[in-house]
Hints:
single chain, alpha/beta, Glutaredoxin, seven-stranded mixed sheet, disordered N terminus
Amino acid sequence: MKTLSLLRTVVAALALAGLTAAAAELKTGDPAPDFKLQGSDGKTYSLADFKGKKAVVIAWFPKAFTGGCTAECKAMRADGAAIRKFDVAYFTASVDPVDGEKGNAAFAKSLDLDFPILSDPKKDTAKALGVLNEKGMSSRWTYYIGKDGKILHVDKAVKPATHAMDIAAKLKELGVAEKK
């Protein structure tokens, strides 16, 4: 009986520790965790690929093929030129799989996107960033990461319809260099 009670206590403690770790949100100035995620374009992207070269923007959204996520991705396609003025790699991302009828590749194709959607179906990167919510989806947050790999800003008040223009304005405010 004591063994069973001890086992329950250990399991509960581990579960609580896991919840605490998942809830840890990164802040401005923190090093961004490296990631290696497959994009809707078939390529694999890693933060390390850009370190020392250019800033990175990752706009997380909750679920492919839903209203707000569709509006956000359409806005980023329509006004993407404003973002491309800057020396930045930019992506949207979710915990949806890449493949399948409801996957990010199908979602990107349905919207004729000119930027990749990153997929994190194992949710490791979402957890490391603190963007995974209690429903098991990513929150609609955008991470701005400097060339040095540190978080420049986290936008937790994303407006899907104006997101591309909002990203461009934030990149300017953060002093991210424009392309030459």
